[in-house]
Amino acid sequence: MRFFKGFLLTISFCLCILVVSAQGVKGGYATMRVFDCNKAASMGSGFMSAKVIIVYEDNTVEQIPILPYSEKNELENLKTINQIINRLKSKGYFLIAQYTTGEQGNLVTDYTFLKQQ
Fold first, then answer.
1. Within 13 Å, how many C-alpha atoms sit on residue 73's CB side?
2. Which residue did the predictor score with more confidence, 20 or 84?
């Protein structure tokens, strides 16, 4: 049964690649990282304030500050992140993956977008 599930996943992945290739997608990827942290969450040896960093397919970088994590700021930060995702969508990007690590008050979320052309 385990083999069958793995086989189906492999076939599904290959079909997705074929569909994307058939559509002629030539745009590249953008990665967005959201540091939804308290005033200064420790990241290795330094501190990182709450912000959104976007790296586009041409290696240009955009940094957008967000409010430090708190119950009061949670909704406002969510609205900001939603606006950014909708802006990327309007530029032709399609969200293909999202991953979050950390704990409440110190979350790091990565989003990967594919630009369709």
1. 17
2. 84
